[in-house]
Amino acid sequence: MAIVSEAPISHCYDIKSADLPVLALLLKTTDIQSLGRALTQQLADSPGFFDQEPVIIDVSALPTDPQAPVLDLPSLLNLLREHALVPLAIKGAQEALLASAQALGLVNASDARIRRSVPAAEALEAVTTPPPPAAPAAPLGALVIDKPLRSGQQVYAKGRDLVVLAVVNPGAEVIADGSVHIYGALRGKAIAGARGNVNARIFAQSMEPELVSIAGVYRTSENALSKNVLGLPAQVCLQSGAEGDKLLITPLQP
Predict the structure, then answer these.
(1) Which domain, by its residues, includes 90?
(2) What is the CATH classification number for the domain harbouring 182?
(3) pLDDT tens digits, residue range 71-93?
(4) Does residue 63 sit in the same domain as residue 111?
(5) Residue 151, domain member (yes or no)
(6) Mind listing the pLDDT tens digit for each residue in 110-156?
(7) Which NCBIfam families match (predicted)?
(8) Which residue, of 67, 92, 127, is where some domain finishes?
(9) Helical segments of 64-138, H only
(10) Pairing of strands 124-127, 22-26
């Protein structure tokens, strides 16, 4: 004989609002092959960084002309999954595309608020839903590394600044959601504002990096630094202008 619980339904579960940080992929092309090459190039700099991150696909920037190429949504979903991203929802889709997306298991996220577009790889950027009123959490202190970082080593300071008290050697990589402070030579890669913080900065006692990046905007050693900052104390910040975002590298005054 089946046993039926007499416990009230309200005792079985609670439904509450949630603050879920997700990424947004702001599409500016329907060319899946080009998108795949761009993702491969960007994510190669930080393997595993976006591992299993949920993603909103934002198609609001795609042309709505009936003659425009149609987005191959199944191929796009396969591409994102190949890069260990988890497609969760779609934003800005017209009726036909929205119906196709929902048939593939995507949620309609047309009301999601996108923080800002990031030029690199046509924008992986942070999106958050409005949080419910709550007591503010205590900010995390900086992650401090007091040993040299060798080639192949990677350090990520999630939700905080990163302080390195030694050299970052070629082939090493330091990443922070906040700013990166290096009290030694920066000869590897430094990524600040990894999840869209445009106010993050990179500081180094000796600026000679393979790559620097803030909020997805990057500069490599192929673009040589000027003599007034190369090998000297310097900082990197993100500068916005009419032509878009770019990195500004300036000397630190004594």
Answers:
(1) 22-127
(2) 2.160.20.70
(3) 999 999 999 888 888 888 899 88
(4) yes
(5) yes
(6) 877 665 444 433 334 444 444 455 555 556 789 999 999 999 899 99
(7) minC (TIGR01222)
(8) 127
(9) 73-82, 95-103
(10) antiparallel
- Here the CATH number for the domain that contains residue 29 is 3.30.70.260
Residues 147 and 244 both lie in one domain: yes
Element (H, E) at 42: helix 32-44
Domain co-membership, 149 together with 201: yes
* pLDDT for position 118: 41
Tell me which residue has tokens 């504002």. Answer: 193
CB–CB of 109/22 below 8 Å? no
What b/e readout covers 154-174, taking b as 16+ CB neighbours within 10 angstroms?
Answer: bbbbeeebbbbeebbbeebbb
Residue 120 and residue 138 in contact, taking contact as beta carbons nearer than 8 Å? no
Cα gap 147→172, rounded to integer Å? 12
Strand partners, 234: 204, 251
Task: Answer for the pair 143, 154: CB distance below 8 angstroms, yes or no.
Answer: no
HSE, CB side, 13 Å, CA atoms: give it for residue 171.
4
pLDDT digits (tens, 9 = 90+) for 144-193: 999 999 998 999 998 999 999 999 999 999 999 999 999 999 999 999 99
Same domain assignment for residues 159 and 84: no
pLDDT in tens, 38-47: 888 776 655 6
Number of domains making up the chain:
2
pLDDT digits (tens, 9 = 90+) for 12-26: 666 665 556 667 888
